[in-house]
Amino acid sequence: MKLADFDFNYPEELVAAYPCEPRDSARLMVARRLNGPGEGGLEHRAFRDLPDLLDRGDCLVLNRTRVFPARLLGKKSTGGRADILLVREHEPGLWVVLSSGLKSGMRLHFPADLRATVEALDEDGQYLCRFDRPDVLDYAENHGMAPLPPYILRRRRLADAGGKDGRKQTSASEDNARYQTVYARQAGSIAAPTAGLHFTMDLFARLERKGIRTAWLTLHVGRGTFKPIEHEDPRHHRMLPEWYRMKDKDCQVIKSTMAEGRRVAAVGTTSTRVLETLARATEGIHSCEGWTDLYIHPGHEFKAVSALVTNFHLPCSTPLMLASAFLGRRRLLAAYREAVSRGYRLFSFGDAMLML
After folding, report:
1. Would strands 186-189 and 65-67 be described as parallel, antiparallel, or unpaired?
2. How far is the C-alpha of 39 from the C-alpha of 30, rounded, in Å?
């Protein structure tokens, strides 16, 4: 297996700079796995058609994490621009952050009298920053920006410069609201579980009327999800751990669904990783919280997830590896080629896939 086997070409203009409105108007490619009804086929639908594509008794499992405004802009003591991404709190006032051009001992200054000192750079390329106050998360909620992926910001600059996107520039508050699922609850993620961005409350009502179950979990999306694969053989990649929680009532819904032979449809790769982590535990799907570094790539045997709702992912990324494991690499990349030929919108704010 080579990392280059998971690369594909796409035109820059297909990268979604802004989300669909309304949310469930996004396009939905339906890809059916081999050895199943309609095996190998592709359909082209809208996300609002999801209730028609699932059966009564199936269960959608969704990640209720909430993205916090983790991007802070300020100045370095040297006079340069400081652009940092809060990753996680190590202890009160001490945060793991992502940035570039920082040095140990450097002072950082942010609006509203927030200051920090860079203490160290760890082996994973992350900085430790000591802030002069413990309420950094509260500060970020009031002064931070949505941690939009760099490719979205780049695409916006290109679209705005060329005047081809037809969208007005969005404010920080609009991005903070839209880079969030409608069912988000507990703050802690530095990236959205993007497959969930397409759901609306009206769509949930229609799913309930159809008799489709829902179960909930939390996984705080950290750097582990989007850390680049650096090995030529992607099987040697190491996932950074991310925190998750699963409650008993949701476990019972999932176990009942599996016992009845119905489908467990994970919404997103984060939900998939939690379910597959628990399915490998001695207790099976059970109420707990902890850290998972499960890395799913081709060859993985899925024990809990039998359907997957996901977006179109970046080439050579860990989410793409997971989707390849579920659908098969050749079939997934063939579906991606068709998506590109039909003008599907790609990546975080883009369109979606349903794999059955």
Report:
1. parallel
2. 11
Domain 71-143 has CATH 2.40.10.240: yes
Q: What is the pTM of this model?
A: 0.94
| Identical fold, 3-67+176-355 and 71-143 | no
| Distance of alpha carbon 322 from alpha carbon 36, whole angstroms | 20
Q: Where are the domains of the chain?
A: 3-67+176-355, 71-143
Please give the chain's pLDDT, 356 residues, in tens.
999 999 999 999 999 999 999 999 999 999 999 765 666 689 999 999 999 999 999 999 999 999 999 999 999 999 999 999 999 999 999 999 999 899 999 999 999 999 999 998 877 778 999 999 999 999 999 999 999 999 999 999 887 776 555 455 678 789 999 999 999 999 999 999 999 999 999 999 999 999 999 999 999 999 999 899 999 999 999 999 999 999 999 999 999 999 999 999 999 999 999 999 999 999 999 999 999 999 999 999 999 999 999 999 999 999 999 999 999 999 999 999 999 999 999 999 999 999 99
Q: What is the CATH number of domain 3-67+176-355?
A: 3.40.1780.10
User: What Å distances lie between residue 295 and 109, 221, 234, CA to CA?
Assistant: 37, 14, 10
